[in-house]
Amino acid sequence: MTNAFMVSGLTKTYQDFTLDHVSFTVPSGTIVGLIGENGAGKSTTINAALGLIQKEDGIVSILDREELDGDVKEQIGIVFDGSNYPEILSPRKLNRVMKNIYRTWDEQAYLRLLKQFSLPADKQIKQFSKGMKMKLAISVAFSHHSRLLILDEATSGLDPVVRDDILDMLLNFVQDEEHSILVSSHITSDLEKIADYIVFIHEGKVVFEKPKDELTERYGILKCGAVQFDGLDKSDIISYRKMDYEWQILVSDRGRMQKKYPKTLIVPATIDEIMLLYVKGEKAEN
User: Fold this and answer.
1) 216-232 burial, b if ≥16 CB within 10 A, otherwise e?
2) I need a labelling partner for 73 at 20 to 30 A (CA). Which of 84, 131, 150, 231 fits?
3) Contact 221, 269 (CB under 8 A)
4) Who contacts 101 (Cβ-Cβ below 8 Å, separation ≥6)?
5) Where in this chain does the record put each ABC transporter domain (predicted)?
């Protein structure tokens, strides 16, 4: 399987933060979710990969090219969390601008999306709400026949119905195996619906890169008391938290753990819970 997007050893240092040799891939025909708490390095990773900020080290390959020339940029649809267009323009005037930027601009597709999202074509963008601006950015990204979509908090500020419509659009987009998506989001329930792989970044480092189904179908949270906790094989524990009335332990194979510890309660873990236990949990000492 070829990769639509690849970063290897991506590094960027600020005074109070370091993106530390980040590496992961977006295989062609897949959706990869990039997760992490605010300030973890998700946006820095995307900006450095796209050349919007200068990286200090690392290799970036997008659509099999290490140089982001005009031809490659035409094939990338980008949506950031915020307005990216001159606010004095209206969507109709923006259409004329985009015709001159993208050789592959599809005016009819764009106008259909404006209608689908109930966006007023002649209203200035500065009068749009945050959610309306996000819908406009998504309309543009879907209107120049991109092969790769890069979305940074693209569903932020949208109501659940519109968000669900956009998730369906993303799933339909990757039905073509030449299409791929990298989506950064703090709404992990969205990623549970659509992602093929999850990349978790914490404090500028990749914690894991795993198939989404492995996380949702195999990972679990073992709940027990202090006596049971002391009897656990510490090599089975990824991390744990001591709560008021129980211990919560993250395990990577809940089926195997249930057989090994039949008297404990083991429940499926959401991606949010997995992330929380990695970040807030403690490591067991053997």
Assistant:
1) bebbbbbbbeeebbeeb
2) 131
3) yes
4) none
5) 2-228
72: which 2 tokens?
A: 């490659």
Torsion of CA 173, 69, 80, 276, to 10 degrees: 80
Type of residue at 139: S
pLDDT tens digit string along 21-63?
Answer: 999 999 999 999 999 998 899 999 999 999 999 999 999 999 9
pLDDT band at 286 (very low <50, low <70, confident <90, very high): low
| One-letter amino acid of 23 | S
CATH (one of 3.40.50.300, 1.20.1090.10, 3.30.450.40, 1.10.540.10) for 3-211: 3.40.50.300
CB environment 120-149: b (16+ within 10 A), e (fewer): eeeeebeebeebbbbbbbbbbbbbbebbbb
Could you state, in order of their start, the residue ranges of all structural domains in the chain? 3-211, 219-283
